[in-house]
Sequence to fold (530 residues):
Amino acid sequence: MLGDGDAAEEWVLVRRPTDADAAAAAAGWGGAAAAAEERPLRIAFAEPAKHWTDAAPIGNGRLGAMVWGGVAAEKLQLNLDTLWTGVPGNYTNPKAPAVLSKVRELVDDGQYAEATSAAFDLSDKPSDVYQSLGDINIEFGNANDTYTAYERELDLTTATVTVQYAVGNVEYMREHFSSNPHQVLVTKISASKSGCLSFTVSLDSLLHHHSAANTSNQIIMEGSCPGKRIPPKENASESPSGIKFSAILNLQIGGDDYTAQIVDDRKIKVDGADWVVMLLTAASSFQGPFVKPSDSKVDPTSEAVKLLNPIKNMSFSQLIAYHLDDYQSLFQRVTLKLSKDSTESQSTDSSVRIMSDAIKSTVERVKSFKNDEDPTLVELLFHYGRYLLISCSRPGTQVANLQGIWNKDIEPAWDAAPHLNINLQMNYWPSLPCNLRECEEPLFDFIESLAINGSKTAKVNYEASGWVAHQVTDIWAKSSPDRGDPVWALWPMGGAWLSTHLWGIILSQWTKFFWRIQHTHFWKDVQLFC
Fold:
């Protein structure tokens, strides 16, 4: 809530881009800061990704992708922040007080091994698991062709990934970004010569799903997450239905003499186009941490259609103009200079280094760092951290999980679940120092939900006041101990540590959340438990 005299800068305001903005975007994203031209903030790759960790991440806080940048075949691995296994849980254990009393007696008697063994009975079920939405697979059919002049880069100034290469005398380009204003993943594929663009595209998922091309320019994929954790080697389709999802891939196709047709009911084959713009929207039936998926009133396909309809006829230049206006309003708030610039004594050497860094791949720069200790590489790492936070946490999204929003697996490491024994806090440490406090809003929303469940856990498990959270949580705001070694699973200070972020907001006097925190009790009640 804003009071008298509050500045409008308390909110991220995205103006409607002008015609000049769109023209600049079409000409090469000319709205980027002039400083970026002198000191490029680009992560450059010399070849397509061989592993998922080599791919380039993009995201709008809710919808993310990892861009592989292949030549014969491109893959965009997709994520939606609300795709999790499971249903809301109880997170209480009526037997816990008696067990806890026994554990305390054993500790008092110096029987520490026996106390640890007994403490296993205090653990609850493990957290639920973050899931991968699926993949956009693009097959170009030129696997045997030799390509040259390959470039792939993630530009932190524009939050875009570009892939460029040449086959023969034809140059190809792909441009990718995930738009927050329009909640859409955008990919433009173009060729330097008319009629030279041909490919087949499909949508697929590791989750139980059905994918079909309903027209020659649109594919719809619908599916569901498991309603419980899936043990290894168990078929996900045998699990009770959980969160449902839908993704729609829509194609805008340009050219004088192209064809587009449905292949095998689920693919679209494009031949002889000049360019194609792909728009992907996605939604789930998740309606909050306290609503069972079976009780949800949200139809994900209808929601995905609502996102697509207003933008499916917008041009690429219009979409990227909105995207840049939104993203750069956050990213351009902070600069960092650790190296000399062109106005200082070694201007020639500085300029040569900047030009050299723009040409070398980032892998090469990392390898040479032990010799040159290039400070601009440290600058790049700092800005990459800001980029990731902006890309995985925005007002209204889920809290950034253990992998942000990016995950390729059905069984990711540590379930990709938020860990409260440092990882979740670390995700948001940069928010205030880097003037990205809006990106911290999902954390406060999550703490409110966690406090509701945590008060039940505190009352039943510990017969205590206030609220408690343990080492691991999930989209359902799990507050009970995780299943595992009591040495880590029973750590009960997750809520207290998270609340230090609330105190940081109070100290910063951010009016919007200062009022909200002062007039709620969850940030104070965690002290009652401690």
About this structure: The longest strand covers residues 241-254. Residues 174 and 189 are 4 Å apart (CA to CA).
